[in-house]
Amino acid sequence: MRSRAVRLVAPVLVLAVTALAALAPSSAARPSNPMPPARPQVGASGIGDPYWPLDGNGGLDVRHYDIAVRYDFDTGRLTGTTTLRVRPTADLSRFGLDLLLPVSTVTVDGRPATFDKPARHELRITPQEPLVRGTDVDVVVGYAGDPSRISYAGESRWLVGADEVVTVGQPHMAPWWFAANDHPRDKATFDITVTGPASYQAVSNGLPVQRTLTGAEATTHWRSAHPMTTYSAFFALGRYDVEQTSRAGLASYTAVSRSLPSSERSRAATSLRRTGAITAWLETRLGPYPFESTGGLVTSQRVGYALENQTRPVYPGPPARGLLVHELAHQWFGDSVSLQRWRDIWLNEGFATFMEVAYAERHGGPSAQQWLRGARDDQVGSRWFWRVDLTDPGAGRIFDPAVYQRGAMTLQALRHRIGERRFWRLLRTWTHDRRHGTGSTWAFRTLAERISGQQLDDFFSTWLREPRPPAPTRSNGLH
């Protein structure tokens, strides 16, 4: 994600439905007649992240989401069904999911379950029989309501106009439109099916599977075959200019809202065509692209920021080159390697910002080391910039400019200290070893020490935690 308010110092898709069907999870491997648990637990109402204690739920590992939604522009009503393939990590007599809309039905493995909502954000489910640890079950939740009337954690995330709706937001978006275990730590594969007016296009993550016309409506099915965080799942429904291409076997799907002025639409389409080349350059630095498709969507909605939705970032207008690099770098940092906790967000934003600087260095801009020295000098007298602890910025400051810029400065300083070859090996190892998983600041520091052969506690403490500018020394990567 990059806010428009953040200022940096420097600068034909053919797909067989039958082949894709093989990617969907199967229940064939489920154990038959599992033994009932002796002492089942009540699943916790949060996954354990102190920034948002109600996010996620205890005792659950969601393996797959199958989401079907219909949106009515006239009434603002969204009607949906989410089917979750859930693998309990404990024996559970009761468990929870995150959903803000009113719920009408819940079943667990085809049997009606008791449910209530003790708080707007929390759906509490009691199955007829306790869930058995390690035994997959299908949980089906039916719901409906007007998402634009709902807020959570001070956020009102529903972006809708007369002829376009876009579900884009971070750190929260999922509970406005599907039942979720809403935390980056629990990633899953997705099928997303959207029904709307036949004259509109529905765009989502991954690859399109099928579009079916039924009278005045169209139903479009998208599939993401690789694990994805819940906030990165999205759909957009509107009138779009769509381009489908491929480069070196990688499918690309881009969409530009027709509600934008014609000149802006043209500039947006031209900008999005750079996606393939930028992705190819990022692969030379970070290793193979981690997903089945790439692309982007330019919306007419007043988002105020771009967001790295997996495989298909959303931009609030024609994206500049640096913004494209930033959001595409997030496909590795944030989407493939996701956060273990929200306090680790510099691993997303600092890394994506650094890749902007590295790209500029190779494409006519100043060297990254020149950028680093200039950035440090510009911020020497800024107390707020150095007071943000990047290892624990607090829920209210996860998108603070220091998270982006100082995070990028840390990486360039590390590059200068341990050397070019070791540094790029570090990033490629990080993206390879944690592909489709999660990471933490501690894990990254440990890997950096292993690859460099250096003790880096003081270095990371100085750059990430100290409330003052790092001294211009060799050990700090500045000389």
Automatic annotation (TrEMBL):
Entry's EC annotation: 3.4.11.2
Keyword set, alphabetical order: Aminopeptidase, Hydrolase, Metal-binding, Metalloprotease, Protease, Signal, Zinc
Protein name: Aminopeptidase N
InterPro entries, A to Z: Aminopeptidase_N-like_N, Aminopeptidase_N-like_N_sf, Peptidase_M1, Peptidase_M1_aminopeptidases, Peptidase_M1_dom, Peptidase_M4/M1_CTD_sf
Pfam families hit by this protein: Peptidase_M1, Peptidase_M1_N
Source organism phylogeny: Bacteria, Bacillati, Actinomycetota, Actinomycetes, Propionibacteriales
Annotated region (Disordered), positions in chain: 27-46
Similarity-based family: Belongs to the peptidase M1 family.
Signal sequence interval, chain numbering: 1-21
Top-rank EC class of the record's enzyme: hydrolase
Cofactor names: Zn(2+)
Gene3D superfamilies per record: Neutral Protease Domain 2, tricorn interacting facor f3 domain
An annotated Gene Ontology molecular function: aminopeptidase activity
Catalytic activity: Release of an N-terminal amino acid, Xaa-|-Yaa- from a peptide, amide or arylamide. Xaa is preferably Ala, but may be most amino acids including Pro (slow action). When a terminal hydrophobic residue is followed by a prolyl residue, the two may be released as an intact Xaa-Pro dipeptide
Annotated Aminopeptidase N-like N-terminal domain residues: 64-231
Record-annotated Peptidase M1 membrane alanine aminopeptidase domain positions: 322-463
